[in-house]
Specification:
The protein has one domain: 4-Layer Sandwich (Deoxyribonuclease I, Chain A), CATH 3.60.10.10. It has eight helices and 14 strands. The strands form three sheets. A six-stranded mixed β-sheet has the order 3-4-2-1-14-13. It has a six-stranded mixed β-sheet with strand order 5-6-7-8-12-9. A two-stranded antiparallel sheet has the order 10-11. α5 links the parallel β7 and β8. α5 runs parallel beside α6. Its cofactor is Mn(2+); Mg(2+). Belongs to the DNA repair enzymes AP/ExoA family. GO terms for molecular function: DNA binding; DNA-(apurinic or apyrimidinic site) endonuclease activity; double-stranded DNA 3'-5' DNA exonuclease activity; metal ion binding; phosphoric diester hydrolase activity.
């Protein structure tokens, strides 16, 4: 089973940049997308172009043109929820938690902590979001259920996960408190699936849109698939797809045994 996550930086935009061709060629079973940036009512033509073979579910932000997540699946979901029982978080349309048999799959667009003035003023909100999601998933994790948390985490975990760590220690996405929160998830038993297979440098999932930055691979790895202990035993492969363009992020994903759902 192949499960893929991609921050598309606007679904309507990426559809004009080969999204449907990529979707057909990727042969994924489940695709989670982030930063949809549209209300579901605005997505009619987009959804028609994707085709009818997919279960399609979206959660939009109350603010127009902002945030939003979507789930495309060839498998029927038993349930998809979009609330973390917190109005401030729910208003931003950042979470879908789907059940596929035993598997819990969270498709998440974690907040950026920069704030409007790039003063890191939104880091407390971002960290509270992380902690709330952790708490929502924790009862299932303690039962040993397989859980995958995928999406744009907006945090580079280690120095190896961005091209210029020393220059960014005070930048949201690489501050010590944000990195410590990811550490907390790892200490609690979540596995960074990509690092389970690849320990080397130079692997990134986001690049600034300034000219030449992506070509020089001056990037950050801020998109992840985390696996609970119950899910990690089913892992077969994890990957990044930096050759896929159309967004400032690239797709990331895992291949897992079919038994993860059963």
């Amino acid at each position: 089973m192949k499960i893929v996550s991609w921050n598309v930086n606007g679904l309507r935009s990426v559809l004009g940049k080969g999204f449907c061709t990529w979707l057909a060629e990727e042969r994924a079973d489940i695709v989670g997308i982030q930063e949809v940036r549209a209300q579901e009512a605005q997505l009619g033509p987009c959804l028609e172009s994707i085709g009818g073979a997919w279960l399609r579910a979206f959660s939009s932000a109350e603010r127009p043109g902002y945030s939003g997540v979507g789930l495309l699946s060839r498998l029927p979901a038993d349930r998809v929820t979009t609330s973390m029982k917190d109005a401030a978080f729910d208003a931003e349309g950042r979470v879908q938690i789907a059940r596929f048999g035993r598997l819990t799959l969270a498709n998440v667009y974690f907040p950026n902590g920069s704030g409007q003035n790039r003063d890191n003023s939104r880091i407390p909100f971002k960290l509270a979001f992380y902690r709330r999601l952790f708490d929502v998933l924790e009862p299932r994790k303690r039962r040993g259920d397989p859980i995958l948390v995928m999406g744009d985490f907006n945090t580079a975990h280690r120095e190896i996960d961005l091209a210029r760590p020393k220059e960014n220690v005070k930048t949201s996405g690489f501050t010590s408190e944000e990195r410590e929160e990811l550490d907390r998830w790892i200490r609690a038993g979540y596995v960074d699936t990509f690092r389970a297979f690849e320990s080397g440098p130079g692997h990134y999932s986001w690049w600034s849109q300034r000219f030449g930055v992506r070509a020089k691979n001056v990037g950050w790895r801020i998109d992840y698939v985390l696996a609970s202990e119950g899910a990690a035993k089913h892992l077969k492969r994890a990957f990044l797809s930096p050759h896929v363009t159309g967004s400032d992020h690239c797709p990331v994903g895992v291949e897992v045994e079919d038994a993860i759902v059963g």
